[in-house]
Amino acid sequence: MTSAGVRATARIAATVDGRGGTALPVLEGEGPLALRRTRAVGSEARVMLVGAMSGPLGGDHFTVEATAHEGARLHVGSAAATIALPGQAKGPARYDVRLTVADHAELHWLPEQLISASDSELQVTTRAELAAGARLVLREEQVLGRAGEAPGRLNSRLTVRRAGRLLLDQELACGPGAPGGWDGPAVLAGHRAVGQLVVVRPEFEREMPQAALLGEFAALAPLAGPGVLVTAVAPDARHLRRVLDEAARTLG
Is the pLDDT of residue 55 over 80? Predict the structure, then answer.
């Protein structure tokens, strides 16, 4: 990776405000990562990630850090899809997401889709660290190529820990140069959109949702703790969102 790439970090911290709501004492964005507070919903603070520049391009390194302190409720979305594009700098682009949720806090991480454009190369890592009493709703959606376009190379890793214990560690590699079979029947089966929904709730310790098929190309699987993973593939982003939204409604 060369020095020509852009480095940018966005930081969000949410705390209780003492009046039944959630304050945002830290809301800092750099360069292409702009943050905007939007209207709260009940006690939940809402933040929108706004892309101020195109990218990530080859050689770029973006990082988003979001922390919900004890008792806070935070919802983070994005204004538009993120598009990974080829760039002049050598090496892949990197996009790191770091989520931390304290006891009795709740974080909803619900960005728009990540699109892997032709000739791009992107490494995405998402890590969530949860306290024992934390709640998390996390959605990730990847789309391989724009309409009528071949995909770029995409490596994605998702890790969730609760009280120091690993709940989920999942990795997916797609596109040119990925290990063979990524487009075969055992992985994407010819589809171009793939997504995950992770829901962690202390209530699941008492009553865990059962493993189930959610249509032909989606499944719900309990994790090794009070959480579930929904995985889905679809022909496009619209169909994928519909499947994951329906799963979210089912899980409450």
Answer: no
